[in-house]
Amino acid sequence: MPLPRPRTDSSTRIEAETMIRVMLADDEPMIRAGVRAILTTEPDIDIVAEASDGREAIDLAQRHTPDVALIDIRMPRLDGLAATLEIRRTVPAAAIIILTTFGEDEYISRAIESGANGFLLKSGGPHELIAGVRGVAEGAACLSPKIAQRVLSQLSDGRMSRTSVARSRVESLTPRELDVLKLLGAGASNAEIGRALFLVEGTVKTHVSTIFLRLGVKNRVQAAILAYEAGLIDDPGQTGDRA
């Protein structure tokens, strides 16, 4: 007996195109279960894969090409930071959120250098998790407010020595690119930047790509930190409270 054909009407196609495909990577089954329970309550989020270690995370990311990967730092076989580097290299379209605990400050700078798009505390609330996933899927950065404060503290310790360097780097940007960088650093997605500056989203994407190239940064988190160091924004962690 032939299997029934799947629906292919326009509403089904639109739904598929708007779903956020998420991969979870954490060696603790209870953590994965909790995150899954929160995210699967949302109609626009689909859990497509779950990994229990870093190497499995890389394999599943390459196989499923998720829109967002939630990755724990401490995992067996390969840690989350090394997995992030490889996923960033082989699945560049995937946005990566690092799941961390409050005491793992020493990993923050390494995770930023690895190309993570955001950082969320495992102890954070469901709203913060859902907003973070949606935010990075839309092209924004995401920092848990508590992590943002620690990033700011780390930056402030040596900010004077970095400010002149950061300002010299942003001098290469045009006035319009500076406008985009300021909004990007405040946590705005491409769509939000477009509405604020009366630009189509494709033009915003071009500006963002050019900004990354000229500043020598990998993603929006690094760009936001550079904007903070240059004095363009007050707080690169505003991204942590997106709706």
Description:
The structure is a single chain. The chain has 243 residues and is α/β, with parallel strands linked by helices. It has two domains: 128 residues, Rossmann fold; 85 residues, Response regulator (Rossmann fold). 53% of the residues lie in helices and 12% in strands. It is built from twelve helices and six strands. Strands 2-1-3-4-5-6 form a six-stranded parallel sheet, sandwiched between helices. Helix 3 runs parallel beside helix 4, helix 9 crosses helix 12 and helix 10 packs across helix 11. The N terminus and C terminus are likely disordered.
Q: What is the H-and-E element order?
A: HEHEHEHEHEHEHHHHHH
DSSP strand count: 6
Strand content: 5-15%
Any low-confidence stretches, pLDDT <50, length ≥5?
1-14, 237-243
- What would you give as the CATH superfamily of the largest domain? Response regulator
Number of helices: 12
Distance between the termini: 47 Å
Estimated radius of gyration: 18 Å
CATH class of the largest domain: Alpha Beta
Largest sheet: 6 strands, parallel
Neighbour order of strands in the largest sheet = 2-1-3-4-5-6
Helix- and strand-based class? Answer: alpha/beta
